[in-house]
Amino acid sequence: MDAALKALTSKHPGAVPTLITTANVAMSRHQFAAAQASYRSAMEKSPNTSIAILLAQSHIIANEVDKALGVLEGWAKKQPDDRTALRALAEVQLAAGKNESARRTYSQALAGDPNDAQTLIGYAVLLQRLNDPSAVSTAEKALKLVPNNPEFADALGWILVQQGQLDAGIRHLRDARLRNPANVETRFHLASALAKAGHKVEARDELTAALSKTSRPTQGMLALKSELGL
Q: What does the pLDDT look like over 177-192, one tens digit per residue?
């Protein structure tokens, strides 16, 4: 890899693809500062949403969420009609717990395209966090637009479970698990829902499967493990 990168740099020094490749290699080695410097250089030469997102992601992986937000907020201001940039910003705001900022950004993105399923499902998750009853209808709309998407089925199912609609929620979570059995979060959600519904044996099976697929269980998974006596 080093030899190939050296040859690329020698042949195309300072070219955007070279800078991106250099940054990607640095990221693979957890050399975050070097990667960010290359992404910034690429952004200066060819400012666009894809590179802005790569730069933001490099900050997120380096646990620099505020810097990631700064990158995306600055770019979104320059490109207020770029729905991809707005969705990326909203997703980071959601992950950072900046709920009201995320609500405004999602609303701005959906104003440009109310049928963007990916934006809708993220907005539904946020609405549930804010205890907004329209979370269900928003997630249902997203799943209707992309009916075979297991992540959307998982999101809708989990929202329904959190709102106390266990049977409907479990139905969607089972569908999501069948479509993507390797998804740890889906199996945890299903295990949690089954436990709430009193199906302890099946809940243990689902949680055991989830735990077998991750080396870093969440606090929620560990709490459910204790509750189920695993």
A: 999 999 999 999 999 9
